[in-house]
Amino acid sequence: MATQLIAPRLGEGVEELTIVSWLKQVGEPVAEMEPIVEVETDKVVTEFPSPVAGTLLKIDVPAGETVKVGDSMGSVGIAGEEPEAKPAQEKPANGESAAQVEPTSPIPAQHPESGDKNSGQEIGEGSKRNFISPLVRKMAAENQVDLSRVPGTGEGGRITKADVTAYLEQAKQAPAAAATSTLKPSKGNIPSPTVATPSVAPAKPTLQISPDLGKLIPHTSSRRQIAERMVQSKLTSPHVLTVMEADMSAVLAHRKQHKQAYAEKGINLTLTAYFIAAIVEGLKSMPKLNASWTDEGLFIYNSINVGMAVALGENGLIVPVIHNAQDLSLEGLARQINDLSDRARKKRLLPDDVRGGTFSLTNYGTGGSLFASPVINQPQLGILGTGAMQKRVVVLTDADGNDAIAIRPMIYLSLVFDHRAIDGEAGDAFLSKVKQTLENWR
C-alpha cells in the first residue's frame, strides 16, 4: 500500500508550506529517511525525509506551489503500484479544520528549546484569516495590495491566491482610493510594524529579455522573500547609521586562553559569541533598542533575543535567533551559535528557530568588508554590523595624558537604527557600551 507524504506542521502558527523542489522524480527509488522534498515556510527551507523505503509514485504538489499542513504532497510505494488518490480534507469531530490537526512529522526534532514564538504575518487576531501564506504575501508585495481590504474566501476567512487575483481584477475596473494598512500586534512576542502601503505600484523599468542579450536566472522563493522584506524595511522605517571602532586585543587574548578548553567540550569559540554578549550588555544599558515601534508607543521586550545572520551562499542568508540571550554565559552563547549555524547550513532549521528576534547581528567582515550599512530586520529597531578585523596603528593615551603609538587589532562596529524611535544620543550610547564591553573583556 502506498504511503502518503503528509505536509508537516513545522512550527506554531504554520498552516501552509511551499514546495521548493523535489529531490526525487516520479519512478525513482528512495531509502527510508532519505530526503525526498524541500519545503519552505517563513524563509526556512527544510528537507523532508521519506518515512518508508520505496519508489516515488506520485507528486501531488509541484515545486513552487503551496500545500496545507495535513494534506498530501505525494506518495511512496512499490514500483508499479497504483498511487492513492489525493484525499479531501475532512472536518474533525471537534469542529476544527483538518489543517489545524497536528500531523505526525518524520522530520527529526533536532532543534533546541526556543523562547518566545511568533506566528507568521498576521492581520487582526482570532481567526485563520490571520495567516498569510508566502505566496499571498509575495503577490501582495509585488502588486502593492493592502491585504486588510481583501475579502478572504478560504477556510475560516483566510485570504487565498484567488482572492488576491479577484481583488486585482476589481481594482483595474475601479481604482481604489489611497489607503494605509495598520497591522495589529500578533499573538507572539513581537508586534507587527505599522506599514504605509502605496495605493499605486511604482513604475518598473522596461527590460528587454532575449537569449541574444543575456541569460535569465529565475528567482528562488527565498530570494523573492528576501527582496520583499528588504524593500518593506526601507519603506517602513528611516535608517540611520553610526560607526565606531573597537580594539579587539582583550577579546583575542581571552579567546586564545580559553579556545582549547571550549574545544574539549565540543564548542567552537568564535568571535560571534563575544559580539552577541556585548550586544546583550548594550541592550541592558539601553532597553529602548530592544523594542519595536507601534502607533500606541514603544513596545520594549522583557527578553533579549538576538538574531545572527548566517550566509547560505547563493541562497542568500537566514537569521536564526538566540532566545533569552541575557540568561546565557559566553559558553552557552557559543554552544547555541554552533548549533544554529550548523543546522542553518544543513537545512535543518525550523520556523521557530528564526522567529521572535528583538535585535540582529550581521558579520559582513568575513567577506573582507570594513563597514557597511545593513538593513533592519523588521519590526526590530536596530542591527549591528561587524567589519573585518585589521591591525592598525592607533594612538594610545595613558592616565597622565601621555600619547603613544601602538599596533592594535581594530574592528569597525556599524549600528543602523530606526530613527522614528531612536535618536542619535541613544544609538551612540548603545554602541559605546558594546565597544567598552569588547575592549575591557575579562
Written description of the protein model:
- With 442 residues, the chain is of the alpha+beta class.
- It folds into 3 domains: 3-95, RNA polymerase II/Efflux pump adaptor protein, barrel-sandwich hybrid domain (OB fold (Dihydrolipoamide Acetyltransferase, E2P), Beta Barrel), CATH 2.40.50; 128-204 and 218-224, no CATH class; 238-439, Chloramphenicol acetyltransferase-like domain (Chloramphenicol Acetyltransferase, 2-Layer Sandwich).
- It has 7 helices and 21 strands.
- It has helices spanning 134-143, 161-173, 221-236, 249-264, 271-285, 330-345, 424-439; strands at 3-6, 16-22, 29-30, 35-41, 44-49, 54-59, 66-68, 72-77, 181-182, 194-195, 239-247, 291-293, 298-300, 306-308, 310-311, 317-318, 321-322, 359-362, 382-386, 390-397, 403-418.
- Strands 11, 14, 17, 18, 19, 20 and 21 form a 7-stranded mixed β-sheet that branches. A 4-stranded antiparallel β-sheet has the order 1-8-6-3, with no helix packed on it. A 4-stranded antiparallel β-sheet has the order 5-4-2-7, with no helix packed on it.
- Strand 4 (35-41) and strand 5 form a beta hairpin.
- The termini are far apart.
